[in-house]
């Protein structure tokens, strides 16, 4: 598959939150991607989410997930799991083994509570650029949303490009259920390119 000239590699990660304990309020952060490299852009290629009930919910509600750009992203969020350091041996996240190692600074996913802001947090945009709304259901194992694409470079008229100290979050778009637990899966793919490409 051809990639744009100046692309140092194409990378992909997939992970799942812990059993998020209700309530989880709107705007709480479940996943973050932080880019800090000075000489390259990170170009979001594909992003999708799934979610399911993991602990019985008493009353179903309408909730959702959203993709929110982050600017001035100098400090990674805290809590959760830093996905891009788990078991890294040199080839993780690459879609071709001879790509250079990824330059991404921090990819983080929540455990049982949302991610926490650092002392000096980045600035989230006031509006999301993509979201999905869904009902929760109540029973364990209920699928809330299945492989919903929040961003796809192949069908978007312009790519989502991250410069130094930028990135994105996946947040709750609305308040979640008042009781129970649920889990969210995230799949993200991105290109790392020299700044001359875009």
Brief account:
The chain contains no helices and 13 strands. With 198 residues, it is mostly beta strands.
Describe the structure using short key phrases.
single chain; 198 residues; mainly beta; seven-stranded antiparallel sheet; six-stranded antiparallel sheet; 13 strands; globular
What does this structure look like?
By secondary structure, the protein is mostly beta strands. The protein has one domain (7-194). It has strands at residues 7-16, 20-21, 29-35, 40-55, 62-71, 81-82, 106-109, 123-124, 130-135, 143-152, 160-162, 166-172, 181-194. Strands 3, 5, 6, 7, 8, 9 and 12 form a 7-stranded antiparallel β-sheet that branches. Strands 1, 2, 4, 10, 11 and 13 form a 6-stranded antiparallel β-sheet that branches. The protein is globular, with a radius of gyration of 17 Å. The model has no long low-confidence stretch (mean pLDDT 92).
* Cα separation of the termini: 19 Å
What is the ordering of alpha helices and beta strands? EEEEEEEEEEEEE
By DSSP, the count of extended strands is 13
Gyration radius from CA atoms, angstroms: 17 Å
Shape: globular
The low-confidence runs, each spanning 5 or more residues with pLDDT under 50, are none
């Amino acid at each position: 598959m051809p990639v744009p000239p100046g692309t140092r590699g194409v990378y992909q990660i997939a992970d799942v939150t812990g059993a998020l304990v209700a309530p989880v309020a709107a705007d709480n952060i479940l996943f973050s991607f932080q880019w800090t490299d000075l000489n390259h852009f990170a170009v979001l290629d594909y992003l999708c989410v799934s979610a399911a009930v993991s602990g019985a919910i008493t009353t179903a509600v309408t909730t959702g997930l959203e993709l929110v750009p982050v600017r001035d992203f100098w400090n990674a969020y805290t809590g959760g799991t830093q996905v891009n350091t788990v078991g890294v041996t040199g080839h993780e996240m690459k879609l071709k083994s001879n790509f250079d190692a990824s330059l991404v600074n921090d990819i983080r996913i929540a455990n049982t509570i949302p991610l926490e802001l650092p002392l000096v947090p980045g600035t989230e945009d006031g509006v999301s650029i993509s979201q999905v709304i869904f009902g929760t259901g109540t029973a364990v194992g209920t699928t809330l949303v299945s492989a919903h694409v929040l961003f796809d470079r192949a069908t978007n008229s312009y790519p989502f490009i991250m410069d130094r100290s930028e990135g994105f979050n996946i947040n709750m778009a609305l308040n979640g259920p008042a009781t129970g637990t649920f889990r969210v899966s995230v799949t993200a793919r991105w290109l790392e390119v020299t700044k001359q490409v875009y």
